């Protein structure tokens, strides 16, 4: 028999029925799994602002209550502390499925749990979407391309992924999640959307999550050396979080399944990123080289032609403009407002 979360009855079921595309809709009921996390909390802000009812389903593994605290008195907002690896019953119109640790440090911490979250968690959310006829959006990742042999990466590229490495729990987990999503689409006629997200940064990132932008920013603010792994010549493309949220919502509302690359095509080596951080925070910040981690992809840059053409989407915020917005947030959280002001000068 199915185990169902006791919290599943906390949402009053309403008359179901999918609203046809193109009709003006008011007050969609939207689930955001992982909504207490970095990307999810920004998405929740936008959904509530446009008048939707939002249920966040999050086990707070890497998410923080602080990210959604400003909504707790909003009657259109609800947070359920729940692990997506367990089934749950809800009545909703759309599901944004983000629940999964995203930082390599976090997803390697308990790799089997990461796989369960990606596979069983995604299966449960697809089963839920099927039962209520909700539209389902998966946040996949550029990691499905592995250490890519094609550059930049288009969605047609199948990737170069190590199935038995330390990153595989995430890379292969997300690849399986994509497979499940397409099988529910083909087999159960489910309305699905797949986003392949490239490295994203912005306010509310976990300060010590080990990702490169959060590391460099926190290190520069704390007057610690910037830790560049390997020779620092590997590349990534950094997207500001508001651009991503815009892309996710356009994808959900549009009529195309995808997959769609959502990322900023600006490509930086880690040494170039360190330079931007120095220019933004502290020109005297020192650089310290460290051994790189296993299976680190050498380069990554999205080809976003498909999203441009079919979703009418492209990023608007450059790294030089986005970084200061994140720095302000990190300053406040690391030093507290009082000291932040003292340091701002
Ligand atoms: P995050 O770690 O800040 O957020 C993930 C959220 O999921 C957290 O709130 C966490 O508590 C929750 N969560 C994790 N496991 C869960 C479980 N089993 N049950 C319920 N909740 C669970 O990460 P993020 O950067 O906001 O990433 C969000 C999504 O976007 C993830 O699926 C990630 O794979 C994807 N993504 C992010 C990036 C990026 O650069 N930020 C890049 C590619 C893909
Ligand atoms: N599921 C869920 N909530 C629902 C419906 C299904 O969590 O509202 C879970 C269910 O427990 C199962 C998974 O989603 O583990 C897949 O459900 P589906 O009905 O597609 O498959 P089945 O239950 O037949 O294996
Ligand atoms: N990296 C680095 N210094 C750090 C953290 C990461 O040079 O303090 C490098 C890492 O080796 C990788 C790149 O930055 O080449 C991006 O790493 P991140 O963990 O942010 O994301 P992902 O590897 O998932 O793209």
From TrEMBL:
Its EC number is 4.1.1.35. GO terms for biological process: D-xylose metabolic process; UDP-D-xylose biosynthetic process. GO terms for molecular function: NAD+ binding; UDP-glucuronate decarboxylase activity. Catalyzes the NAD-dependent decarboxylation of UDP-glucuronic acid to UDP-xylose. Necessary for the biosynthesis of the core tetrasaccharide in glycosaminoglycan biosynthesis. It is found in: Golgi apparatus, Golgi stack membrane. Keywords: Decarboxylase, Golgi apparatus, Lyase, Membrane, NAD, Signal-anchor, Transmembrane, Transmembrane helix. It is a single-pass type II membrane protein. Residues 32-324 form the NAD(P)-binding domain. Pathway: Nucleotide-sugar biosynthesis; UDP-alpha-D-xylose biosynthesis; UDP-alpha-D-xylose from UDP-alpha-D-glucuronate: step 1/1. Its main location: Golgi. GO terms for cellular component: Golgi cisterna membrane. This is UDP-glucuronate decarboxylase.
